[in-house]
């Protein structure tokens, strides 16, 4: 990441490390209703550059960012190679939230996320996260790396583990194979099943 003060690109390997266990996902009831209510259309890899650039932009309460054009260019190259992915929330065909990260083997490394509350996107990035975790779980992924355990991620079940334990899990996950999942138009429920809705006659 880029040090906002020196503008140097630096490498971090935190100890402890934050991960989101696939069997430990916690979704608050209100958010689950939002997921099931289909307020947002969730897609993947249709607006990667827009997602990462929005994540990098300054916003109220956060003037500094760890992303600059050098890293953005590298992430876009990784996306073109099939190693970086975005998950996007759309409302009336407007991008109102999303996240992106890196996919290696059966591991996903979450990088950043955003939501545009002023555009009706309140909770949109959270919906993307819930859908992504459930899709990755069902696709056979073994590791969801969040790097750090923030108060925001802790609400979803994010935990900290020692760096050595993380490296053990990482070795197994990157050596395994798991394809990037298909994102259906219907949201998944907590059991990984597509919800069906009665048609209006």
Description:
The chain is α+β, with helices and mostly antiparallel strands and 201 residues long. The chain has a single domain, classed as 3-Layer(aba) Sandwich (Aminopeptidase). Helix content is 30%, strand content 21%. The chain contains six helices and seven strands, in the order βαβααβββαβαβα. The protein has helices at residues 29-36, 48-56, 69-80, 124-138, 151-154, 163-175, and strands spanning 17-19, 41-44, 84-91, 94-104, 107-115, 143-147, 159-161. The protein has a seven-stranded mixed sheet with strand order 2-3-4-5-6-1-7, with helices on both faces. Helix 4 links the parallel strand 5 and strand 6 (143-147). Helix 1 (29-36) crosses helix 4 and helix 2 packs antiparallel against helix 3. The longest helix has 15 residues, at 124-138. It starts with 16 loop residues before the first strand and ends in a 26-residue tail after the last helix. The model is unreliable at 185-201 (pLDDT under 50).
Q: What is the H-and-E element order?
A: EHEHHEEEHEHEH
**Number of folding domains?**
1
Helical segment count: 6
CATH-defined superfamily: Leucyl/phenylalanyl-tRNA-protein transferase, C-terminal domain
What is the number of beta strands?
7
Unreliable stretches: 185-201
Taking strands numbered 1, 2, ... along the chain, how are they ordered across the largest sheet? 2-3-4-5-6-1-7
Overall pLDDT confidence: 87
Strand content: 15-25%
Instruction: State the shape.
Output: globular
* CATH top level label: Alpha Beta
Structural class by helix and strand composition:
alpha+beta
CATH topology: Aminopeptidase
- What fraction, in percent, of the residue positions are helical? 25-40%
Distance between the termini: 53 Å
Report the biggest beta sheet as strand number plus sense, adding barrel if it closes.
7 strands, mixed
Estimated radius of gyration:
17 Å
Query: Any idea what the CATH architecture is?
Result: 3-Layer(aba) Sandwich
């Amino acid at each position: 990441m880029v040090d906002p003060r020196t503008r140097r690109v630096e490498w971090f390997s935190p100890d402890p490390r934050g991960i989101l266990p696939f069997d430990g996902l916690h979704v608050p009831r209100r958010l689950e209703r939002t997921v099931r209510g289909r307020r947002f259309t969730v897609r993947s890899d249709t607006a990667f550059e827009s997602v990462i650039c929005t994540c990098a932009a300054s916003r109220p309460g956060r003037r500094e960012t760890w992303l600059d054009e050098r890293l953005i260019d590298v992430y876009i190259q990784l996306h073109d190679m099939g190693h970086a992915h975005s998950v996007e929330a759309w409302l009336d065909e407007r991008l109102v939230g999303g996240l992106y990260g890196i996919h290696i083997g059966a591991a996903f490394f979450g990088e950043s996320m955003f939501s545009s509350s002023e555009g009706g996107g309140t909770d949109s990035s959270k919906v993307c996260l819930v859908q992504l975790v459930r899709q990755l779980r069902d696709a056979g992924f073994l590791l969801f790396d969040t790097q750090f355990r923030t108060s925001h991620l802790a609400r979803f079940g994010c935990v900290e583990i020692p760096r050595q334990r993380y490296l053990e899990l990482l070795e197994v996950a990157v050596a395994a194979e798991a394809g990037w999942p298909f994102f259906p138009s219907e949201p998944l429920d907590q059991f990984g099943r597509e919800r069906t809705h009665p048609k209006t006659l």
